[in-house]
Amino acid sequence: MKHKLRIAVISSDQTLAGNLELRLQNRGYQAISLTRLSSVLGFVYSDPPDIIIVDLSVSAETTGSIIGNLKGDSYFSTIPIIGLVDGADAESFAWDECQLDDFIFTPVKYTELFSRITLSIQRIQRVLDNNPLTRLPGNTSIQRAVENALGKPMAVCYIDINHFKPYNDVYGFSHGDEVLRMLARVMANAVRESGGGFAGHIGGDDFVFVVPIDRAEAVCETIINNFNAVAMDLFDDREKNDGFYIGTNRKGQEEKFPLLSIAIAVVPTASPIFKHYGKVAETAAELKKLAKKSNESCFVIDQRKK
Question: Over the stretch 91-132, which tens digit does the pLDDT of each residue have?
Fold first, then answer.
């Protein structure tokens, strides 16, 4: 089934927001209007839309702050934002201060709006290397973030989901995809709430985040606690009580698999031993093997003398 594009309309003008929502829904989009500006960021953080239309003709200062917060976050910055701008204010509008991906003038011409929506989605797919499932930055951005951390008091942290393949086999790829999206949100929110950093998706069930070394343990603990809490909802009461589910191993035999957990490898990058991206990835692979020996979520920090 084709994914229905999800669009959030942000405006304190309830009439405008309602009209936009109705026209977008009639066009086949899944649209929601957010008229309480104070709750917009909370909504987007918990349930990110595919595209945002924001009314800048009223409450420009508040909506401008919302845009700044979203564009300043590595996870949410990829969501295309189309601004509605009063045509009379075009010459005086502070374009340099408002990080829009596109705009149209009000009153809205809907044929133009629909074209802008299509072009914005196509543009973001061409330009960015973001993972299409989680929308997190992909390998090009990850390599750049890791290389920027080399020689600095930072930590590059790799996450892997334990026993993810058998879970996919037993419960289906749609459930597996939801686990990946869930972990992406948990990780990105933990990084953001800690004070900021980088969050990326290598592919499959492999994720990475980069934060200052003094925040790494706290972020790992937050991710583990939140993942464990949400992951329990993926299983029924019997499986929770048993502590395992029945799946098929690589030999085609039935096997008891522990409930989903995560392994995190934490690589401090201040040491001169890490001169390139490959060495960080190699060290992380070794640490993840240690972390994955546990059936419970855990993290391992590289403590070797350099």
Answer: 777 777 788 999 999 899 999 999 999 998 888 766 667 788
**Which tens digit of pLDDT belongs to each residue from 40-77?**
999 999 889 999 999 988 777 888 899 999 998 877 88
* Between 128 and 207, the higher pLDDT residue: 207
Q: Which amino acid, residue 39?
A: S
CA distances from 232 to 177, 226, 228, 258, 289 (A): 16, 10, 6, 12, 24
Pair 260, 161: CB distance under 8 Å: yes
Instruction: Provide the b/e sequence for 140-174 (b: ≥16 CB within 10 Å).
Output: ebbbebbeebbeeebbbbbbbbbbbbbbbeebeee
Write down all domains in the chain, each with its CATH number in brackets: 6-127 (3.40.50.2300), 139-301 (3.30.70.270)
* Model pTM above 0.90: no
Measured CA to CA, the distance from residue 254 to residue 250 in angstroms comes to 10
